[in-house]
Write a structure and sequence with these properties.
By secondary structure, the chain is α+β, with helices and mostly antiparallel strands. The protein folds into 4 domains: 95 residues, no CATH class; 89 residues, Beta-Lactamase (2-Layer Sandwich); 67 residues, Helix Hairpins, CATH 1.10.287.130; 152 residues, Histidine kinase-like ATPase, C-terminal domain (Heat Shock Protein 90, 2-Layer Sandwich). The chain is 53% helix and 18% strand. It contains 12 helices and 13 strands. The strands form 3 sheets. The protein has a 5-stranded antiparallel sheet, sandwiched between helices. The chain has a 5-stranded mixed sheet with strand order 7-9-10-12-11, covered by helices on one side. A 3-stranded antiparallel sheet has the order 6-8-13. The protein is elongated, with a radius of gyration of 43 Å.
């Protein structure tokens, strides 16, 4: 039955009861009964409202029992509260899931309100920006990231391009920061660690500059000598012979540089995988030993120590190039009369090739950068000895392709040791007869 018909039936019944009471009890008694009934109804409503208020305030854990319309009201409230709790739980689950997903992101994320105060941030952002999600909530972002360029970037409001800054709290850390507006004037601050990218770009710029410099010097020399030959003609055979000899040396220097660059390019090309074979390392080292003696021309005492006949699985050309670079470097940086040893041993299950020399040695601060392209401890001496500055970079790439590592031990004035450590999976042990 609809609400209208309920009210109509109630009204008719009320009129009928009133008429009966007036006929039997009289007007005064009827009014008194109605006043008493009204008072009881008000007290009942007052009681139900008081119980509802206590329940809403949390003073009562359970909703009061009731019947009639109040029972319907309480039942609807229970359903509404249950639906609200379910919605709240769903929102909490979704929020926790979002926070877990955001926390797993490699980028830092900071949620800020309409006046740029921190509401929440993930652990990566805490690490990048030196903030704490629990302690710094409600703090203005510029109170914690105190860099002028960051403040200017935030104030400008142009967030199409990210801001690249160096984080002073973490030495060597470079960050890319970008604001993403959303909602009602709220913002996300996204931070990315671009340290490695910046380092690669710096290395690329240095590489181009170094190649240009290395090629410009011999080209300048050759160009100058060509002008000399053009001016003097063929009247001075001795001068012409001297000039042609120097031009040949500079041409060979450029040729070595180009060959090393091509070798590096080939090694870095992941699609150009070298064919691996079983390499007889003792035989290769015997060949390198004889080549070292020829290169030294008797100026050094060179020895070969083969403690194992184990062979390696790898690329013959690449390993020969890497080992040859280590041997030629030892000869190049060891004074006349010095000692150089080539060693092949099995140590702790690994194959180890070591070139030990009694040369000039290297200061500790230079060792971590020796395998960088064109990095030289002594630039002038390296040019005098004919080095291109790419030898150890080639060695590093070759060893990386063979899951090996380069270990450098050196002391100034005491010589150096360059060791290539190959994993057991690369070793092929020879069976004894």
């Amino acid at each position: 039955m609809s609400g209208f018909w309920k009210r109509l039936v109630t009204f008719i019944l009320l009129i009928a009861v009133t008429g009966i009471l007036f006929a039997t009890l009289g007007a005064v008694t009827t009014l008194a009964c109605y006043l008493i009934a009204l008072l009881l109804l008000v007290m009942h409503y007052r009681h139900q409202l008081t119980a509802l208020e206590k329940w809403l305030q949390g003073k009562k854990s359970t909703l009061p029992d009731s019947s009639g319309q109040w029972g319907d009201v309480f039942a609807r409230l229970v359903r509404l509260m249950r639906d609200q709790r379910q919605s709240y739980q769903q929102i909490n689950v979704a929020l926790e899931r979002l926070q877990r997903a955001t926390s797993a992101m490699p980028e830092g994320v900071v949620i800020m309100d309409e006046i740029d105060r921190i509401e929440w941030c993930n652990p990566v952002a805490e690490k990048h920006l030196g903030i704490n999600s629990a302690l710094d909530a409600g703090q203005h972002i510029t109170h914690l990231v105190r860099q002028t360029q960051f403040t200017e970037y935030l104030t400008a409001g142009n967030y199409n391009e990210p801001l690249i800054i160096k984080q002073p709290r973490h030495q060597g850390l470079t960050l890319s920061l970008q604001f993403v507006p959303y909602g009602d004037k709220q913002k996300l601050l996204i931070s990315r660690d671009v340290t490695r990218l910046e380092r690669v770009q710096t290395m690329r710029r240095d590489f181009v500059a170094n190649v240009s410099h290395e090629l410009r010097t011999p080209l300048t020399v050759i160009g100058g000598f060509l002008e000399t030959l053009a001016e003097e003609g063929s009247s001075d055979p001795e001068t012409r012979k001297w000039v042609l000899t120097l031009m040949t040396d500079q041409t060979k220097r450029m040729q070595r540089l180009v060959e090393d660059l091509l070798t590096l390019s080939r090694l870095e090309d992941t699609e150009n995988l070298a064919r691996e074979t079983n390499i007889n390392i003792p035989e290769m080292l015997r060949e390198l030993y004889h080549e070292a003696q020829s290169l030294s021309m008797g100026h050094h005492r060179i020895s070969l120590n083969l403690d194992s006949d184990a062979t390696l699985l790898g690329s013959m050309d690449e390993l020969r190039s890497a080992f040859g670079n280590l041997v030629s470097n030892a000869i190049r940086y060891t004074a006349d009369g010095g000692e150089i040893s080539l060693n092949w041993v099995i140590r702790d299950g690994q194959g180890v090739f070591t070139v030990q020399d009694s040369g000039i040695g290297i200061d500790p601060e230079h060792i971590p950068r020796l395998t960088e392209r064109f990095y030289r401890v002594d630039r002038g001496r390296s040019r005098e000895t004919g080095g291109t500055g790419l030898g150890l970079a080639i060695v590093k790439h070759v060893l990386t392709c063979h899951q090996a590592k380069l270990v450098i031990v050196s002391k100034p004035g005491k010589g150096s040791s360059f060791s290539a450590h190959f994993p057991a999976i690369r070793l092929i042990m020879q069976k004894s007869e």
